[in-house]
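Bit of a strange request maybe. I'm writing a small parser for structure token strings and I need a real example to test against, not something I typed by hand. Could someone generate the tokens for this chain?
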Amino acid sequence: MTDKTKTAQGTDPLQPPPLRISRLFHARRETVFKAWSSAEHVRNWFSPATFTVAEAIVEMRVGGRFEVCMRAPYGQEYWTRGKFVEVSPHTRLVIDMAAVDDAGKPLFRAYTEVDFADALGGTQMDVVQSYTLFDPTMAAAMVAGAAEGWRTTLDKLATEVVRLQGGGEPTARSAVHAMFRLERSYDAPVARVWQAFTDEAAKQKWFGGAPGRWEVLERHMDVRPGGTERLKGRWEGGLVTCFDATYYDVIPNERLVYGYEMHLDDRKISVSLATVELTAGAGKTTVKVTEQGAFLDGYDDAGSREEGTGFLLDALGASLAT
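Reply from user aminoacidic:
Good idea to test on real output. This should exercise your parser:
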């Protein structure tokens, strides 16, 4: 390996430092271990906040498959495929898995070691995940967000463990704040792009869930200062999402400012302030979106809101091209 392929610390950039995370569960080791043991249980928790598990295959034996399809709120699906390489009941699991792209090509390997130990008040679970990046361009951001993704995933596991014990859901409250900015350029006049943001018929062409996997339950919009917008729909797995917005600043062809809440089923997961700025030039339109959000009660989405907004802006571009 030449010096050009090493970082300043002399480590291989294709193998970032392993992730280490621990959690104490108020349950016996047998119960925490059981949550990993079948697709029925894994579907309830093996995804970050705001994501769901669309499909899972869990064959808990050495050589058995461990495959999970995570679905983002905007409909994009992400597959992780792997197998168990060590299974020691109630004590240790090792899963060799990889995140893959839509064609099944591995983006990065995640060699995952999970240890279960008795602890004061319950079970301590230690996770060590070691990475090898096959496609650094695509995988680096995913691995960078792994710590936050695991944190909210383990929040879901805590809920599943409580459910397995016949109890209710945890009641811890929290708020995590985040901000992002996105920019897109469209080959369309500003008036048409403005219409795509403010006319209900034009907006429904791009603002919503994946066709065939999402059913509109309610949609209305009234774009004026003090006006409101609601989009509520049900995913094929039964999850209901709801976007509730209030407009505060409306300058035609130039700017929108609105606040919105997001709900998953009956849970409020975030409150955000969004600003959309449009700039015209040479028959094209530049759109800048800035969002500031408070993610509530464990729903720190580790960047999925930004990714989802980018997905919608790309859908907007496709709608303008037709």
